[in-house]
Design goal:
Two copies of one chain form a homodimer.
Chain A: H1 16-23, H2 27-34, H3 42-54, H4 61-68, E1 73-78, H5 86-98, E2 103-108, H6 113-125, E3 130-134, E4 152-155, E5 165-169, H7 171-184, E6 190-193, H8 200-216, H9 232-245, E7 251-254, H10 257-269, E8 279-283, H11 287-290, E9 298-301, H12 304-319, E10 326-330, E11 333-335
Parallel strand pairs in A: 1-2, 1-3, 3-4, 4-5, 5-10, 6-7, 7-8, 8-9
Antiparallel strand pairs in A: 9-11
Chain B binds a DNA duplex through helix 2 and helix 4.
InterPro entries (chains A, B): HTH_LacI (IPR000843), LacI/GalR-like_sensor (IPR046335), Lambda_DNA-bd_dom_sf (IPR010982), Peripla_BP_I (IPR028082)
Pfam families (chains A, B): LacI, Peripla_BP_3
Protein name (chains A, B): LacI family DNA-binding transcriptional regulator
Chain lengths: ~350, ~350
DNA sequence: TTGTAGGCGTTATCAA
DNA sequence: TTGATAACGCCTACAA
């Protein structure tokens, strides 16, 4: 006599038919009992449930999906997992789905259109209920297709097509918030050192910063936005330049935390104290980078995890029939730390 | 007359039966034609293929999986996606699978055992062909279960159970390599500043370092390993301590790149030049952190992406019947940069 | 070369 | 309250 209470590796999982047989009922009854249908005698239900537990029965989601027409599965198509911006979004989406009963199929296209369409095909063939497309750069990207059998939500990088639904970071608002904070800290000679000007996000942040300065009638220190690269080295170099041209600067809004770290280094090198002489605020709130800086770096957080969560919610709504469209901007959040303490 | 060449959203995807009807053949023939079976007339095959394309037919993977007993899907169960070590592993695995026709179901347990078992249940019910379990910390963790119907491979954090197959980083070898490199650079007064001593990896790296020193009969500068926290702040503090106690130190092996950044800062503060006076090597090779340092930081790379790739390969082999067991250690890799240039 | 029929595991409908 | 039975979409003997 063998006890079948523990499935061994290589052994086929128990089916509903196994459960029914062990419980001495028909397959139909077993199904009803396990799914909480009301048309089952309590005693029978108990017997079926016990049998299911004895066999470690777990219903075959494939068979279920085949009938239901839904798989409880969504595809997450990213362009660049290596980049650190996709991860929090993915995390937020996984969180929102995983707490329910939706599973996430992950694909990374590595920025390659061919790979992307290959993955798209695979996902559709797996009959995902919907798709989230996460871009690597916050610039608009080609629509993945307007005639797909499932709803699609774009996150971070918006679709070029206006009928697609895209969720993006409000970089303009983030830029405003950064400058607002510096103004609130009593600064009035504010410079902006930022990264690659070919990014839409770079322009948005800069424009937001300029707009906020304009509302107060405060001119930009240095006279112009210092565009460059997303590196610490550029942060250092730009700061040296800035100090020689506008030595009276009392605050710097850096376009990224990396740049901000460079700014901090260069200021220290020049004997300027932060935040007493110069306040510095970064962007991205890359925790480990910002919190480890000396002094700890104030920053603007893009709330990417929240972005992922909202993307999941929107996709869910779309799956249930309520499909939106257009570009939805989600707000940034100020995270003040030591580098912007109010001037004494 | 309607043309059905483009499926619209909300419209059910074409089935094999649709294709067969359009091509004027039976379902069986359509199936054979599309799957390259030989028992089909060339002209018929062409007709079927054209019909399939007209309808954008893509075979339902659920139905296929139901028959085949395999789903072409694996589960990736991570404990902590936020931590930056899971990502490269995930990336490597996704890469190895994605180039074939296997899709990855991603779950993040957030370090919570309840969530983990919930996700495990979901994955098994989706009939994944196998599982990769990625730990957050490189210490051994409880086996996810010895009686699962599918093979499991543990990556980064090994399973406590010796019959499970685990792939881990050779931290001991990494520690050796770091010290070997410093010795090769002509240093002889080498200190080791590292992080949380409760991590097995911390001990392994330290022991590796000591072992390598021992082979050359070189004593550890400072007399003992400086354990602390995985932070820049600890790197700075420990370095100050070290300089006051052992001012003649000429090299520091830091247990992480973050710590190494702190070491660099403190050395600069103390007027020591890197690498001329003191060579510094980190661990993790966190590109953006190491390459952005001044001078660029030499480091030990754990080859995590390769680890993920190998995990995928081992899982694949296991799915095909060749299941291994025990702990397999994968080598680290030295990445020399400017911070360890040979002493003049 | 083509078509018919059975079955994969589940749910839902309807009859008993 | 229970149990046959027909789907879901596909593949694969086997029959024509």
């Amino acid at each position: 006599m063998t006890t079948a209470s523990e499935p061994r590796p290589g052994q086929r999982p128990a089916t509903l038919s196994d459960v029914a047989r062990l419980a001495g009922v028909s397959i139909a009854t077993a199904s009803k009992a396990l799914n909480g249908r009301q048309q089952v005698r309590a005693e029978t239900r108990t017997r079926v449930i016990e049998a299911a537990e004895r066999l470690s029965f777990s219903p075959n989601a494939l068979a279920r999906g085949l009938i239901a027409g839904r798989t409880g599965t969504v595809g997450l198509l990213t362009s660049d997992l290596e980049g650190r911006f996709s991860i929090p979004i993915l995390l937020g989406a996984e969180d929102a789905f995983g707490s329910g009963s939706t599973s996430v199929l992950l694909c990374d296209a590595r920025g390659d259109a061919i790979r992307e369409s290959h993955h798209l095909r695979a996902l559709l063939s797996r009959r995902v209920d919907g798709l989230i497309v996460v871009g690597a750069r916050p610039d608009s990207r080609p629509s993945i297709g307007r005639a797909l059998p499932v709803p699609v939500v774009y996150a971070y990088a918006p679709s070029e097509h206006k009928d697609d639904l895209s969720l993006v970071v409000d970089n303009h608002g983030g830029g405003r918030a950064a400058v607002r904070h510096l103004l609130d800290c009593g600064r009035s000679r504010i410079a902006h050192i930022t990264g690659d000007p070919s990014y839409g996000a770079t322009q948005d942040r800069a424009n937001g910063a300029l707009a906020e300065l304009a509302t107060e009638g405060v001119p930009l220190a240095g006279g112009r936005v210092l565009f460059g690269a997303w590196s610490e080295a550029w942060g250092r170099g730009a700061t040296r330049m800035l100090l020689s041209q506008s030595p009276d600067v009392d605050a710097v809004f850096a376009g990224s935390d990396q740049i901000a770290r460079g700014v901090l280094d260069a200021l220290q090198e020049a004997g300027r104290s932060v935040p007493d002489d110069v306040a510095v605020i970064g962007f991205d709130n890359w925790e480990i980078f910002a919190a480890g800086a000396r002094p700890a770096l104030s920053s603007i957080d893009m709330n990417l995890q929240q972005l992922g969560r909202v993307a999941a919610q929107r996709l869910f709504a779309a799956i249930r029939g309520t499909m939106g469209s257009g570009v939805e901007k989600l707000p940034c959040r100020l995270v003040p730390r030591e580098s912007t303490a109010p001037a004494a």
